[in-house]
Design brief:
Helix content: over 70%
Strand content: under 5%
Order of helices and strands: H
Shape: rod-shaped
Oligomer: single chain
């Protein structure tokens, strides 16, 4: 086997090994990024559920208070105690 053939074989083998290593590295980093996205989605869903539960609790509390208290929105001018209405 000539030295040029040996050099070509060695260079081609090294290039193939480098490509295989790079592809494996790229797949691992892509998999890690996808997993991070899933974790982020799970966290967002958890926060959304917490906020929804808080909102429902506040809504129920508001309804309870409306039963007990009379609530005015402040836009009524009639019957003001300062005599201007």
């Amino acid at each position: 086997m000539s030295s040029a053939a040996k050099f070509t074989l060695a260079g081609t083998s090294a290039m193939a090994a480098t490509i295989v290593i790079f592809v494996h590295y790229a797949q691992r980093s892509e998999k890690a990024a996808m997993h991070a996205g899933v974790l982020r989605d799970v966290e967002n869903q958890r926060v959304k559920k917490e906020r929804q539960a808080e909102f429902e609790m506040q809504r129920a509390l508001e309804q309870e208070y409306r039963k007990v208290q009379s609530v005015h929105d402040g836009s009524e001018v009639e019957g003001r105690s300062d005599g201007t209405g």
